From TrEMBL:
It comes from Brevibacterium casei. This is DNA primase. It comes from the Bacteria. The lineage of its organism: Bacteria, Bacillati, Actinomycetota, Actinomycetes, Micrococcales.
């Protein structure tokens, strides 16, 4: 009874509690992460605008995430539509699928 009522949760939760992420990372402070807006998303946005994007889907995803977070217009990113890299044409459907 002592084991059952000494901890919160059902049997599975009690048994797995010693292996939980809370025990593995008791101090999950992110103070070491630099604050600010943009970062990789801002750089990806600029690469797309400049036409220097090597990995279109990856850059578009990062750029759109940055744009939504920082209230930046995503319309300039439509420049990717019709882009042809080695015979692979980036269509409006591809753009919509990545943005949505």
């Amino acid at each position: 009874e002592k084991r059952i009522f000494s901890k919160a949760g059902n049997y599975t939760q009690q048994v797995l509690e010693p292996y939980s992420i809370r025990r593995a990372l008791p101090n999950y402070s992110f103070s070491h992460v630099r604050g600010g807006k943009g970062g990789e998303g801002k750089r990806a946005y600029q690469r797309i605008i400049d036409g220097k994007s090597e990995y279109r889907n990856n850059d578009l995803f990062k750029a759109v995430s940055y744009a939504f977070q920082c209230n930046v217009d995503i319309e300039p990113l439509r420049v990717l539509i019709g882009d042809n890299k080695n015979g692979d044409v980036f269509t409006e459907r591809d753009w919509e699928a990545t943005v949505r």
